[in-house]
Q: What sequence folds into this?
DNA sequence: TATGTAAAGTTTACAGTGTCAAGTTTGGGG
DNA sequence: CCCCAAACTTGACACTGTAAACTTTACATA
């Protein structure tokens, strides 16, 4: 009856995917507070207890939505990386642009992604290459890693800077967003901090 | 009956403060999900509808708790600033240490602070001086602001970097926290990015 | 083909939740 | 002394997550 892919076709087709889709819609229509098991079920056209057969309660649904959001996040960054110039610096800057764009366009989903426990870790490298969102960042950072330095240091610097800016921007810390301009005027100046990336780290003067 | 400061002493003493206190306790015992109007009321020893006379619903209580948390946050940073060495760089590094410490020690409260809309803004300067949390940051950043540069740029760089690191650390992105060490091993290396602070900003190569 | 079985979905029920509308107590000012 | 408004209680309602029992369906197997 309903068009199903081919995954599981007992009754609904694939209710699991439908529930995740419904959840994401609800999320960016009404924010995090309005994400509800019963509402997702209603939008998917099933009874309120149906999701229990696919997710471990509301927490399970949120985790599944976060995983799907993480996928979209990765695709956004892959796409963003290719729009900038082809210099290593251009790669990183375009990546950060994509990061901020995704956060602004999907604020509730963005928050959820970082509220459901870690998706994947630096410790676990992308399976073949660039499979994970962190893998995308890692590849962009690679040219800036000095010999003998742990890549994670550079990656964490970039990641922290763009994530902090995006999160604070979303929280309204930098003032009301103009809405007109596609980006906050502080974006480029803040990213300029990455100029000094990859140099030696003087832990000596910072240790005390 | 109960010991009251002297604010309002109709029945309870000062229920408002008691509810905020109860809320913070509940928050770091059971996390954000367990913060409930009825639970706060019960812990404060009043009926479930009593909070309605002091806060505008659950959102109002959360906002009040966030405001109180913001105060503690500011005090933590003021205190942290004075523990480091007296160099400008020491000021900033100690401040960032305090930032991360607060986030780790009060994760739910930290999240709440940045989930209830902006507390104060860069636009509104600290009343006389250093009154707000941003004022503390501003003072620490002041020595690094080159002549003719907008102070907000430097402040936003520092703020974004330490906030992003703290938030990602809390989210578990950097892997499970050891728990043993007082800080994550990446903290100092990441903060080393601030070495290059205050220099000219080459918007030219970053514009494209 | 007939049948049994397990998954998928429904229905019912229950404890908590926020919120509103009343009622009740209390304290202080006319 | 009395009255009134603020502080608090009580009761109710809609909504939520969750668990249990029940019904339907699709598929494997005999």
A:
């Amino acid at each position: 009856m309903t068009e199903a892919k081919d995954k599981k076709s007992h009754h609904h087709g694939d209710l699991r995917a439908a529930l995740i889709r419904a959840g994401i819609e609800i999320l960016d229509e009404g924010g995090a507070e309005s994400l509800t098991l019963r509402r997702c079920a209603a939008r998917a056209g099933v009874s309120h207890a149906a999701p229990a057969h696919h997710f471990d309660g509301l927490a399970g649904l949120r985790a599944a939505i976060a995983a799907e959001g993480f996928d979209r996040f990765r695709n956004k960054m892959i796409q963003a990386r290719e729009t900038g110039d082809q210099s290593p610096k251009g790669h990183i800057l375009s990546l950060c642009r994509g990061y901020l764009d995704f956060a602004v366009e999907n604020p509730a989903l963005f928050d959820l992604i970082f509220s459901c426990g870690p998706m994947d870790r630096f410790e676990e490298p992308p399976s073949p290459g660039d499979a994970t969102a962190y893998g995308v960042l890692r590849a962009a950072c690679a040219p800036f890693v000095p010999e003998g330095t742990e890549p994670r240091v550079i990656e964490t610097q970039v990641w922290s800077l763009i994530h902090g800016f995006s999160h604070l921007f979303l929280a309204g810390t930098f003032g009301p967003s103009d809405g007109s301009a596609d980006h906050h005027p502080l974006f480029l100046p803040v990213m300029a901090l990455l100029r000094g990336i990859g140099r030696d780290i003087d832990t000596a003067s910072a240790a005390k």
